[in-house]
Amino acid sequence: MFNQTTMFNIRSSHVKDGARHIAFAGICAHIGTSTQALQLLLYLQNTGRSACYVEFNSSGFLSALQSLYADLHRRERDGRLYYRNIAFYRAEDYYRLGSLPYDYVIRDYGVYAGEGFARYSFLEQDCQCLVCGSKANEIFALEKVLRDKGKDFFYIFSFVPYDERDVLRNLLGEAGKRVFFAPLWTDMFSYDESNMNYKLMLGL
Q1: Sheet holding 73-75: strands in order across?
Q2: What are the residues whose beta carbons fall under 8 Å from the beta carbon of 171, sequence distance 6 or more?
Q3: What is the per-residue pLDDT across 43-62, written as a single tens digit (0 to 9) for each?
């Protein structure tokens, strides 16, 4: 049985501007990348660490939030959007500010290798998380990533039945040691306390 407690610990990684930067990307669109990024952010908050979300993609997620939720507030002096104790920034506001006063910055890069994907920025962050799935098109998209040797990504799979999980780990070979499976969770803005993935991944 695979022992997930052997995961890497980013506490010893390079710290940029006083914060650790964790990058998320999805192997395809609509696979739960923003949901997983927010679950990590909420986990960090629950452990007493400060964190914010920065949108480094053109999905329009933050614009949609701002249009849909009347209780989402924008602070004009720095562009911060604030909802349910979560701080959101657009990439342009992040760059304008230079640095943010958080322990962790969660960066959402959208679709890996999609149009406009900021590959070099994604790769230079302290930790990279790739959100994946088990459908045929998702597996073939992942296969292309796995050819890029030497990248210690974490692989977070959404919507995978229990009886397929060991097969997926074996399919990924050595990278299978860095595979996690997201529990089904319907509210991206509240933390699923049964989700132990991020504790195991980060050692925090």
Answers
A1: 73-75, 80-83, 86-90, 51-55, 104-111, 20-26, 127-132, 154-157, 179-181
A2: 139
A3: 999 999 999 999 999 999 99
